[in-house]
Amino acid sequence: IYIYIITIKGIVITLMLFQTCVHFFLLFDFCADQSEKRPSENLGQVLFGERIEPSPYKFSFKKNLECQSVCLKSYNTEKTEDKAKLEFLKKGMLLNYQHHWIVDNMPVTWCYDVEDNQKFCNPGFPIGCYVTDTGRAKDACVVNADFNDKDTFYIFNHVDITIFYHIVENEAAGARLVAAKLEPKSYKHTNLEKPDCTGPPMSLGNKFNGDIKIPYTYSVKFVEDKLIRWASRWDYILESMPHTNIQWFSIMNSLVIVLFLSGMVAMIMLRTLHKDIARYNQMDSVVSSEDAQEEFGWKLVHGDVFRPPRKGMLLSVFLGSGTQIFIMTFVTLFFACLGFLSPANRGALMTCAVVLWVLLGTPAGYVAARYYKSFGGEKWKTNVLLTAFLCPGVVFADFFVMNLILWGEGSSAAMPFGTLVAILALWFCISVPLTFIGAYFGFKKSGIEHPVRTNQIPRQIPEQSFYTKPLPGIVMGGILPFGCIFIQLFFILNSIWSHQMYYMFGFLFLVFIILLITCSEATILLCYFHLCAEDYHWQWRSFLTSGFTAVYFLVYAIHYFFSKLQISGLASTILYFGYTMIMALIFFLFTGLYVCRVKVQSLAKLQQNLVGRRGPLLVVSVHASTHCVPHYHRKIKTQGYWSEMIFCICTAFKRVSINYISLVGHSVLILSSLILK
């Protein structure tokens, strides 16, 4: 339940009630006001199931109120309808259902003491609590010693609201609200006509009998606070959340993984490959070039590394959809870091993501068409249609099934039919035409030219060892990227399923960058090992290596479901795993795209810079897709080799707007400064 305050000329204040589930709100039978008009919600709020309803709480600015009556609910336990309402209210208290109120677009917080003399401000408070038949107080019942009757429910039917404000000089409004806090209480109210907010708590026995009356009351107090500025009024909520230390631990854990992988990649690129190239240049030490080729397995596959992959149509479609998701994620996180998508702008994060996805159909169509053409495909119509409808269609079908379940359960979290039609219109009328336009330009442009010719007869792949086989390599490749993000996943899942506030977009963006680097470096290592084993089928393997991180995400979501959540019922379980599958698919396409995208321009740049003097030479190109692709070239000059190699690596990674060497260097500097600090 949410509360929203509208200020009229800075004097009169009207409260309006926001509720996440209208159906549940009506079943709880809380006080309501049908005279006020419902405010409208944006697309993000509708997708998250937030609904806005008028509230009967009304008061004036700077006018304190004491024990004001809101409404009186009467129940006859002999009536089936009233008994069902009480049973539902009892079930809500047993499951620790909570109110979530908003004042001036700020959450009304319940602040209480926790361990180590710390104060935690919760943006919600429970509707009640329960004392078990053994006398153990559960959840919020521990805050009051009077809650001691066994097998009894206690309902919080009174709230003490404290509004903090400060006077603004030279403004017509006069004052600004900077904080809102409350303390839930329970009173039986012996005098129902004139409640005085005294007496024993309002208790409900586990077995109902007779008539039951529940009065709802509230008190309001205004306090001037000259220290809190309006721009920083969220700080007291965010600072009370004990997540910052854990976030820094997550960043340090991710940086250690990145530094480890960077060292491995540097050792391979600047030692192993240099040693291979130097030995190959010493033609005097070998009898013939054939002997040199047999000595190094990765030299033998130069004529097959650019062979079109199997199922090239599906891979190109995945690459196109992944491009759409990658740009959407990057731009959304960037704006969130700048504060445009803060928790104060409710629904803005989801709205921004959906709008960006709709408008990014052109890059998806272009990338899919360009890669499909480079794979030698000719069914361009099928490619365009699959890019526009395959992945979005799977997501929409899953979402539609979840929506049907919500409709069947009578939940207001179900998307209205009009909103569903609007989303379909955005998809078919904007995203699909933009995808067709991008595909048109992609097919119109010439195909990607490879630096070496592909052999007509495929080379036979020798028998592989266990760790160079496809499945073990793919499974191992997703472990390290998942290790960088699993702590952030805990907070994200809490934000989605436990209705906790998520505001650490700076940490999330940093982990996002670290994830990209980790996926790239893990793929470099595994691709090098596979090429050394003379296995040139790297396209799908590279996509699935980092994409397998989504499988670990799915496993973690299953663990989170059984260990952290208390979800009961078949419908709720289907909803959880249905939405989790959507997130896993999006994560799979996003991570798989980044390391599988091939930049042939970087290969051409390497061809221009690696100028030799005599004889053919096999070198390894590091390009934007972070793969090791061998091809023949002239012999490298011994003088200036290191500068040429570093220049080529930097040039390749600039193709994806990420200076890899600089980023790793900055990571080392950040880690060093943190250790020194």
TrEMBL record:
Any one GO biological process: protein localization to membrane
Looking up Pfam families in the UniProt record yields:
EMP70 (PF02990)
Q: What organism is the protein native to? A: Sinocyclocheilus grahami (Dianchi golden-line fish)
Indicate the family of this protein: Belongs to the nonaspanin (TM9SF) (TC 9.A.2) family.
InterPro entries cross-referenced by the UniProt entry = EMP70
Question: In terms of one coarse class, where is the protein primarily found?
Answer: membrane
Keyword Transmembrane helix listed: yes
Q: Which UniProt keywords apply?
A: Membrane, Signal, Transmembrane, Transmembrane helix
The UniProt entry, under PANTHER family, shows: TRANSMEMBRANE 9 SUPERFAMILY MEMBER 2 (PTHR10766:SF111), TRANSMEMBRANE 9 SUPERFAMILY PROTEIN (PTHR10766)
Query: What membrane topology does this protein have?
Result: Multi-pass membrane protein
User: What is this protein called in UniProt?
Assistant: Transmembrane 9 superfamily member
The keyword 4Fe-4S belongs to this UniProt entry's keyword annotation: no
Gene Ontology, cellular component aspect: cytoplasm; membrane
Q: Where in the cell is it found?
A: Membrane
Chain segments annotated as transmembrane: 7-28, 248-270, 317-341, 347-372, 384-408, 420-443, 474-497, 503-531, 543-562, 574-596, 658-676
